[in-house]
Amino acid sequence: QVQLAESGGGSVQTGGSLRLACVTSGYTYGADCIAWFRQAPGKAREGVAILERDGSIDYADSVKGRFTISQDSAKNTLYLQMNSLKPEDTATYFCAAVRYQMAWGPCVTLPQYRYAYWGQGTQVTVSS
User: Fold this and answer.
1) How far apart (Å, rounded) are the C-alpha atoms in residues 117 and 65?
2) In the predicted model, is pLDDT for residue 85 greater than 80?
């Protein structure tokens, strides 16, 4: 069973930085899919960064060059470093994971409903 818990959210001004953490339990790096999603009020949930099984990372166009995903296997933690934050980054951020099945393609191709495990979310607010 996979369990996830996000932390690190808060309120910052435009141009500021935050580092989100997702502590995992039961997740196998390199074998399963894990990703960061976000949902702003009145908008659909969207993928932010997806960690592929081979270690490569897929970033949403809106965050490329500003957000960086990394992992610390020893601490069972996935990080999302967010720099140059903008008001449009305001949202609840979630980490999610799924046990990968061999019949599937790359993690970036998986629809959201495939992600069976979700954290509680952490709020990020960016003011102008």
Assistant:
1) 28
2) yes
Q: Which residues pair with 91 in a beta bridge?
A: 124
Task: Check whether 77 has a pLDDT greater than 80.
Answer: yes
**pLDDT, average across residues 49-76:** 94
Are 91 and 40 a contacting pair, CB within 8 Å?
yes
**Nearest 5 degrees, angle CA 4-CA 19-CA 114?**
35
Does the pLDDT value for residue 87 go beyond 80? yes
CA-based Rg of the chain, rounded to a whole angstrom? 14
- In the DSSP assignment, the letter for residue 110 is S
| Per-residue pLDDT band at 2 (split at 50, 70, 90) | confident
Q: Is 25 helix (H, G, I), strand (E, B) or coil?
A: strand
Helices (H) and strands (E) in the chain, counts: 0, 11
CB distance 95 to 45 below 8 Å? no
Q: Tokens standing for 47?
A: 């993928």
Find all residues with CB under 8 Å of 76, minimum gap 6, and list them.
23, 24, 25, 27
35, 27 Cβ separation under 8 angstroms = no
